[in-house]
Amino acid sequence: xxxxxxxxxxxxxxxxxxxxxxxxxxxxxxxxxxxxxxxxxxxxxxxxxxxxxxxxxxxxxxxxxxxxxxxxxxxxxxxxxxxxxxxxxxxxxxxxxxxxxxxxxxxxxxxxxxxxxxxxxxxxxxxxxxxxxxxxxxxxxxxxxxxxxxxxxxxxxxxxxxxxxxxxxxxxxxxxxxxxxxxxxxxxxxxxxxxxxxxxxxxxxxxxxxxxxxxxxxxxxxxxxxxxxxxxxxxxxxxxxxxxxxxxxxxxxxxxxxxxxxxxxxxxxxxxxxxxxxxxxxxxxxxxxxxxxxxxxxxxxxxxxxxxxxxxxxxxxxxxxxxxxxxxxxxxxxxxxxxxxxxxxxxxxxxxxxxxxxxxxxxxxxxxxxxxxxxxxxxxxxxxxxxxxxxxxxxxxxxxxxxxxxxxxxxxxxxxxxxxxxxxxxxxxxxxxxxxxxxxxxxxxxxxxxxxxxxxxxxxxxxxxxxxxxxxxxxxxxxxxxxxxxxxxxxxxxxxxxxxxxxxxxxxxxxxxxxxxxxxxxxxxxxxxxxxxxxxxxxxxxxxxxxxxxxxxxxxxxxxxxxxxxxxxxxxxxxxxxxxxxxxxxxxxxxxxxxxxxxxxxxxxxxxxxxxxxxxxxxxxxxxxxxxxxxxxxxxxxxxx
Length: 641
Prior knowledge:
Blueprint: E1 4-10, H1 31-35, E2 47-58, E3 64-74, E4 84-90, E5 96-109, E6 114-119, E7 126-129, E8 134-140, E9 149-158, E10 167-168, E11 175-183, E12 188-197, E13 203-207, E14 212-220, E15 238-247, E16 253-255, H2 260-268, H3 285-292, H4 297-311, E17 313-314, H5 326-332, E18 334-335, H6 337-350, E19 354-360, E20 380-387, E21 390-394, E22 413-417, E23 424-428, E24 434-445, E25 451-460, H7 461-473, H8 475-482, E26 491-498, E27 507-515, E28 518-520, E29 523-526, E30 548-549, E31 553-563, E32 568-572, E33 577-580, E34 586-595, E35 598-607, E36 611-612, H9 617-631, E37 635-639
Parallel strand pairs: 2-11, 17-18, 24-31
Antiparallel strand pairs: 1-12, 2-3, 3-9, 4-8, 5-6, 5-9, 7-8, 10-15, 11-14, 12-15, 13-14, 15-16, 19-20, 19-22, 20-21, 22-23, 24-25, 25-27, 26-27, 28-29, 29-37, 30-36, 31-35, 32-37, 33-34, 34-35
Helix pairs in contact: 4-6, 5-6, 7-8
């Protein structure tokens, strides 16, 4: 079943009939809003958006003017967090400004009959710089509690229509009503795409003579976080916009990026992209000559990639084009992802390698639809290198990925090779390198049922990358996430990490551990599910809106050798088992054997594909529920008579 449909139309030719909804005035609360205690179409919600409306227009200078108003009802105590309002805007070069802000909280006194409206004073509203490009306006709503209605409105002024944002009808909270009205500038054409569920209707109306188009949706359940979900954006009901054409001074319409060939022509002629690809980077001649002399092209590519990664620092800014320019990034030894990766492409070209810019959309940014040449579908540029029959994707900005691996955020995505002859949409897939862990455990059980032992974990390929990054980010959380979560009271010591800086070797994790006894009457219960990667079933929700996307294939093996005390015997031993999905996409194998007081255990978990659709969720959920149950079955020991 298709969950989403999309359309792509020119605003100038849409003419669908619908009646525009009339909303209450700012600060006027209806009896229905006052009596609302739960969202009728999303009963688990902690709060609900009563309405979210905006109107986009322009002034005499053709600035983009967006007026927006949002009203929210707080339903539960957990929903009070939605009283912290933050409005993000682009402050760099005065691209955008937020003003005319008004806000209030409405509570009801005298048994819920008298409204008590507390307006937010202008002095309480403040601005905060996030980075060199973005700032945020923060509105602290007063006295927010269950039953509160909060409402705020503001005006956003941007330099031009290039900064027209997509409109999202849906969010984490359920939305009762959402509409967006857009006035198209004279002589301009905009294209749009609608992403929505087949089950949810949308109103689209063009007002004759005004050049204004109106979008409306109602009663949309919230989309909350789901494990292993890909981009939330792909599942939110929304409309995307892009400038598609404009009329020239002497008549005629110039089309703007309505085919992929036009996208290539446009970006290759742009000062922040194509004109950055033939710069003379003043690298040391001796170093470059040494690189050029390398006989193996892969080693040449790896040398340049590692050189750029280690010497040019990423400033945290993204985008598909250069921000300051590749030469300035070289001089400052710092730049945006566009600056750095376009610089990388320059050096790869100078070394004689076949390389092209690759526009990518990282999974968190959203899927690319090849049928629609929308440049906003991409959020980053990377280097695409061809060596013989091998293809390499390099990203020198962000977390380090060895040059022989596809950066994890773009696996299972579509990308656009920017080149007039060899360009086009490609699919980035990885079927060989996996998230691969091998666990070896040697342990002993004492007479009380307590376990002590040593563990060696080898993490390969994407598992290595994930764990190295987690270790560097937060070592205490690393121990909890990967080790101590498996058993209450589990303690570990003497953790030693090997090969942290050696990409060609697995990450070795060696440590000692101890587990207190679990006793039930005369029986000692032994947990065998240790460090397997499946501590519990991650899929517990009844409903799934998004695909399950692991990113890459999974392979986990756990081998255990556990010495049992002479005084205890095995009373109950889980049986050997092999469980497999009907399409063989996920398998679990468990083998147990006891001989001469030595318990030997082996778990193997493997996947043959990394993406499962939302329609397959019930099958995956049921499989993981059974798998977690099998893996958490315990060995029962009893004192010998």
